[in-house]
Write a structure and sequence with these properties.
Blueprint (H helix, E strand, L loop, with lengths): L1 H31 L6 E7 L5 E3 L4 E22 L5 E20 L8 E10 L6 E11 L1
Parallel strand pairs: 2-6
Antiparallel strand pairs: 1-3, 3-4, 3-5, 5-6
């Protein structure tokens, strides 16, 4: 009887140790996938809920400041009712501070309605991203 308790105790300890190591390895692996760099993205134009008119020139302005070097961004404006992309731009800047400066000249009638500006920054060489959005409207 004593021998079976000893075997059971050893088996229990081995299983417990394996489980603890397994959970620790999973946590360590999950932490490895977090981006080391983050950015503060500030969009100054357009402002949330701004209204523009067909034919206007929309200035898209802002700044992103990373803890480390940023690796550029993609910018697009979606028509919220259809999901169609009505404007795109990008910049492959490599700096910890990146200025956002684009103009959408002659906004056309396809953009009438609710719009969403999306700026997606690549924050590291592993292609981790950080996004900032602004909702605004276009009227005829």
């Amino acid at each position: 009887m004593r021998n079976s308790k000893s075997i059971f105790s050893k088996a229990f300890l081995a299983i417990t140790a394996a489980a603890v190591l397994s959970f620790a390895a999973c946590k360590e692996e999950a932490d490895d996938h977090l981006p080391a760099n983050t950015a503060v993205i500030t969009i100054t134009s357009p402002a949330e809920n701004d209204t523009i008119s067909v034919g206007d020139t929309l200035s898209i302005e802002g700044t992103a400041i990373g803890e480390e070097e940023l690796h550029g961004y993609d910018l697009y404006i979606l028509k919220k009712t259809s999901g169609d992309t009505v404007f795109t731009a990008d910049d492959h800047a490599h700096n910890d501070t990146v200025d956002i400066h684009h103009h959408w000249e002659g906004v056309d009638t396809t953009a009438t309605g609710a719009l969403e500006l999306n700026i997606i920054f690549t924050v590291d060489h592993d292609n981790n991203t950080q996004t900032e959005k602004v909702n605004f409207h276009c009227v005829p």
